[in-house]
Write the structure tokens for this entry.
Amino acid sequence: MLLVVTGGDDNALVFTNYLLTEDNSIVVLEEQVLSSAHCTQITGAQFLAPRGNWLVSTGVDQRLRLWQRAAGSLQEHCSRFSCIPDIAAFACWRQDFFLACTLCMCDGRQLLS
């Protein structure tokens, strides 16, 4: 199986679960679309767990959002505001029971935990 999370200019967060078969076919097992995940375009999304049940997204709206995927739905767990006005890249990792994220743009960085 291949888990993919995407976001873009339409402000939607899309989670897709693919099955890669032995004959090199790709089958879509599941797709969840959250059409208004952010107020502006999404600039990044990342899974936090190998099974894909927790993910983080960020956008030009200066929000970092933590999502939980369960029972066929995506539910927002929490949201944090960032002082970075145009987040272009980010990296997140779990540290014990905490989530740490680095947000970047051309002229600034911010560490959230």
Notes: The CA atoms of residues 4 and 16 lie 5 Å apart. The longest strand covers residues 26-34. Strands lie at 2-7, 13-20, 26-34, 42-47, 54-59, 63-70, 73-81, 89-95, 98-104, 109-112. Residues 2-85 form a domain with the Thrombin, subunit H fold (CATH 2.40.10).
